[in-house]
Amino acid sequence: MMRLKLLAVAVSVVFSAGCAQMAQSPGPDAKPAAPAAAAPKFTPWKNIVDYAYVRPHATLPRERSAGALLIDSRPTARRYDEGHIQASINIPDSAFDKQVDKLPADKNRELIFWCGGLECELSHQSAYKAEKIGYKNIKVYAAGEPDWVSKGEILSVSTAFIKKLIDEKAKVVLIDSRPERPFAAGTIPGAINISDSKFDQFVDRLPKDKATPLIFFCGGLVCDLSEKSAKKAKAIGYTNVRKYTEGYPDWAAKFGAAPAAAAPAAAPAAAPAAAAPAKAGALDIQPDKEKGSISIASFERILKENPAQILIVDVRSSAEFKLGSFPGAISLPIAEVEPKFATITRNKPVVFICATGARAGEAYDTTNFLDNKFNAYFLDANVKFADGKYTITPR
Question: What would the pLDDT profile of 335-346 be if each residue is shown by its tens digit?
C-alpha cells in the first residue's frame, strides 16, 4: 500500500511539473479538467468604423492636410512600404512615441488608425496612446487591410519601396498614368507612359504575362489617374497590380527630377508660345513657359476683370468638379474631350484647367491635334478649391 501511495505521489509530481507527454483518459468518476487559461486579449478601441466609413477619406484626389488622417500602425518596411491603404501615413505602434510628431498639431482633427485586421491589436493600442496625449476624435478601422483588399481595393506602395525595386532591378513594370507632356518633362527611371485617358489605345504596352507586377503612379494624392488605370488593368486580368499614390512629386522631391528616357525636352516648346497672344485678339492673354499655356497672372486678371471673355473647361473628373471649380466653368472630363470636341464653343478662347496642369495640358494637346486653329490654352499650375474659394500656385 505504501508503495502504491509513493507511486501516486511521484506521478502527480511529474504531471504538475509539465513533464507528461501523453494525454490520459479520464476515469468514469473524473470531473472535467478546468480549461487552460486563455491568452490575454487586447482591449478594443471604443469607436470602431467600417469600410464604408473609411472609403471616402481615402478617395483621391485629396489633400492629406485636410479631413480625417489615416494612420497605418503596422511596421514600416515589412508592411506599410509593401502595401497600404492610399493616403495613409505610417506610425508603427512600436515606434509611436518616437514618431508622434507625425500627428497633426490640431488635437481635434479626426484620426483613423488601422492595421492587419480583426486580430491585430496595433491600431487599438495606438488609439489609446493618441488619446493619452490629448487627441479627442479617434477611430479605429478594426477590419483593416484584409477587409480593404476584400472589397476590391488596390494597395499603394511607398517611395522607399519603389527605390528598393529600382535598386534591385526587380521584375516590375512602372506605369506613369499622366499625359505625355508631364511624362516627357520628367518621370521615375524606367517607367513607361500610358496616359489614363488613352489606356485602351495603348494597352498593348503592358506585358503579355498578366502575372507581371504592375505599379501605376501619377501626380500624387491630388491625382486619381493611376487609381483609374490600376483598376482598368485589374479588370482586364492583371493579377499583381498596385499603385504608388505619392507619385512622381514625392519621387522628385526625394531623388530629383529626371527626364523620361528618349522623351523630347520640354524647354524648347516655350519659344513658339510667344505667338499665342495673337489668337486672343483684344484679350490680353499672356503665355506661360509651356507651349499653349496661359500665365497665372493673365488668367487671374481675366477672371477678375471680364471672365465672360473666355470659356473655362474643367477636365477633372465629375466628382472633382462637384467639389468646386471656377465661376462659369463647364465640366468635360479629360476622357471626353476628344469624343465631344465638336460640342466645345468656337466663339471665344477656351482655357482648360485641372488640379496640376497635367490633364489640362493633355486636353490642349488633343484639341490642337484635332484642329490646330482651335483657340485654346491651358493653365499649367496647381489649382485647389475649398469653401467656394480657389488658390493657384506655380508648379
Answer: 899 899 999 989
Looking at 14-28, 57-71, 151-165, 196-210, which range is the least confident one? 14-28
Low-confidence winner among 178-182, 191-195, 254-258, 335-339 (lowest mean pLDDT): 254-258
Read off the pLDDT of residues 217-231 as tens digits, 9 standing for 90 and up: 999 998 999 999 999
In this structure, what C-alpha cell is assigned to residue 291? 507651349
What is the rounded CA–CA span in Å between residue 114 and residue 107? 19
DSSP 218-229: -SSTT--HHHHH
Q: Which domains does the chain have, with CATH numbers?
A: 51-150 (3.40.250.10), 159-255 (3.40.250.10), 267-394 (3.40.250.10)
Q: What is the pLDDT of residues 96-107, one digit of tens each?
A: 999 999 999 999
Sheet order of strands, 241-244 included: 192-193, 173-176, 214-217, 241-244
Q: What is the pLDDT of residues 152-177, one digit of tens each?
A: 999 999 999 999 999 999 999 999 99
DSSP 334-350: HHHHTTTGGGS-SSS-E
User: CA-CA distance, 125 to 118, in Å (whole number)?
Assistant: 13
* Closest to 72 in 3D by CA, of 82, 84, 62: 84
Read off the C-alpha cell for 332.
468635360
Per-residue pLDDT at 330: 95
Show Cβ contacts of residue 289 under 8 Å, excluding neighbours closer than 6 positions: 270, 273, 380
DSSP 135: -
For residues 174 and 213, what is the distance between their CA atoms, to the nearest angstrom? 9
C-alpha cell at 158: 511607398
3-state SS, 56-111, equals: HHHCCCCCCCCCCEEEECCCHHHHHCCCECCCCEECCHHHCCCCHHHCCCCCCCCE
Helix axis angle, 159-167 to 247-255, nearest 10°: 70
What letter does residue 209 receive in the DSSP assignment? -
Vertex 35: Cα angle to 34 and 39 (nearest 5): 140
Neighbours of 161 (CB within 10 A): 20
Q: Taking a C-beta distance cutoff of 8 angstroms, is the pair 176, 193 a contact?
A: yes
- SS3 labels along 349-382: CEEEECCCCHHHHHHHHHHHHHCCCCCEEEECEE
Listed in sequence order, the residues at least 6 apart from 138 whose beta carbon sits closer than 8 Å to its beta carbon are 45, 47, 110, 111, 113, 127, 130, 131
